[in-house]
Write a structure and sequence with these properties.
Strand content: under 5%
Number of strands: 0
Structural class: mainly alpha
Number of domains: 1
Number of helices: 3
Shape: globular
Helix content: 55-70%
Largest sheet: none
């Protein structure tokens, strides 16, 4: 039983992280979050301060999670 529990935990963590990423990207797209807030929430390394640069950064990041769709963030 311990082996099965140990194997299940990493996949659960990945699923939780993926949900948080998709949720944050969706909230950004719906304008519930700014680009800078979304970057902070996702704990991404971003050294710029400019909002328009941050928008390009988060659009590129979020587009990775919707590769089969032509989504304009």
């Amino acid at each position: 039983m311990t082996v099965l529990f140990g194997l299940n935990t990493p996949s659960s963590a990945v699923t939780t992280r993926m949900f948080k990423v998709l949720d944050t990207c969706a909230r950004y797209r719906l304008k519930e979050k700014t680009a800078l807030v979304a970057i902070k929430d996702l704990k991404l390394k971003y050294e710029g301060k400019d909002e328009s640069e941050a928008e390009l950064f988060i659009k590129l990041y979020c587009s990775v999670f919707t590769p089969n769709e032509n989504v304009d963030f």
